[in-house]
Write a structure and sequence with these properties.
363 residues, mainly alpha, A middle domain of Talin 1, 14 helices, 83% helix
Length: 363
């Protein structure tokens, strides 16, 4: 295999991350100059901006006929966001989980994941399915804006970073417009290089494009979420770290696949592997958030280590399955017969303990 292919893959990932940063910076500043409230900037431009790499890759791969990369990128990224991003962030410091996350964001994430599986059951994410997802994304964004403006809590969070006062010079306009166009250009170029190199690597290694989408591409496009959550955790803004991940997962399904499938002439083809294994895994990971978040309203370090264990276990299964390795049945039996049941018992115990603690307080 040509080493340039790996170089193209890495450069493509870098361009995606830098492009998203440029686009968010330029668009946010233009919106601030136009006196758009900082709250709306934060919940729309910034929120969609962290999903820009996934969106660029999904649109590019959909147009190129690589549906496995498009949907594998989103499914893999959502799994990566929960298991890897929250896992690593909680090692920095235990993450705080707000009541809104437990009551609203987690159920919505579970709901959209189930909806995606339902739409994909016939082996295809059609244009109609995608448009429905996109409309759901718009409604979700509007609900966030409404809730936040009603509570007034998030206004302070975004005011300092996305407010603007002073004279608006032509140079300032040009600078920010250049950021927008440069960011968009880098996203397009980065996604093209990433998709093309991913396909080449899959062909050379004789593995499926789906595997590449679920692993390398998904990990690469999750870098903005990883960076955002890690920085938030270091700064002590530990509730933002959790909200960023859950919001990104919801946007990935509703907006990324919604737009990707809507602009694709024939929708997005969905393989049996996604329907029978990977989408159910993403749903299971989303469900696992409920007992973990509910117990103590935080993600402790040991729970973060458990997330990381399952992220490595999931990727190990994908690799063993792709290689048709003889140890796959043994590995599967260990996971199904020991690791998963033990985890389920542990999570159930946490929920029972939390309920008993609440009962004792009220009693």
């Amino acid at each position: 295999m040509n080493p340039i292919t790996f170089l193209t893959l890495v450069v493509g990932l870098i361009l995606l991350v830098v492009g998203a940063e440029f686009l968010v910076k330029g668009a946010s500043r233009v919106a601030a100059i136009l006196q758009i409230p900082p709250l709306i900037i934060g919940l729309t431009i910034v929120a969609y901006g962290t999903s820009a790499p996934e969106m660029s890759v999904s649109i590019m791969s959909s147009f190129s006929g690589q549906g496995d990369i498009a949907i594998g990128n989103v499914i893999g990224s959502n799994i990566c966001n929960i298991l890897l991003v929250l896992g690593l962030s909680s090692l920095v410091a235990p993450l705080i989980v707000s009541k809104q996350v437990i009551r609203s964001d987690v159920p919505i994430m579970i709901g959209v994941s189930l909806l995606l599986l339902m739409f994909s059951w016939d082996g295809k994410l059609s244009r109609v399915d995608s448009i429905i997802l996109f409309i759901g994304g718009l409604l979700y964004t509007l609900s966030l804006i409404y809730q936040s403006s009603k509570q007034g809590a998030e206004q302070d969070e975004f005011t300092e970073e996305y407010s603007f006062s002073g004279n608006v010079s032509a140079a300032l306009w040009i600078k920010n417009i250049v950021f927008i166009f440069a960011g968009s250009g880098l996203l397009i170029l980065g996604s093209r290089w990433l998709v093309e190199s991913a396909v080449t690597i899959a062909e050379a290694l004789k593995v499926s494009e789906l595997l590449i989408g679920l692993t390398i591409v998904a990990l690469g496009t999750s870098l903005p979420e990883l960076a955002t959550s890690m920085v938030a955790s270091f700064r002590g803004e530990r509730d933002i770290a959790v909200g960023n991940v859950l919001g990104s997962n919801i946007f990935n399904v509703l907006a990324v696949l919604g737009i990707g499938g809507a602009v694709s002439p024939n929708g997005i083809a969905v393989s049996e592997a996604i329907i029978q294994f990977n989408a159910p895994v993403a749903i299971a990971v989303a469900f696992a958030c409920l007992p973990i978040f509910y117990s103590g309203k935080r993600i402790d370090r040991w729970e973060g280590l458990m997330f990381l264990f399952y992220y490595l276990a999931y990727n190990a299964y994908l690799i063993l399955d792709a290689l048709n390795h003889e140890s796959l049945p043994v590995y599967t039996n260990i996971m199904l017969g020991f690791a998963l049941p033990l985890t389920a018992i542990t999570l159930l115990t946490l929920v029972i303990q939390e309920r008993l603690a609440k009962k004792n307080k009220t009693g």
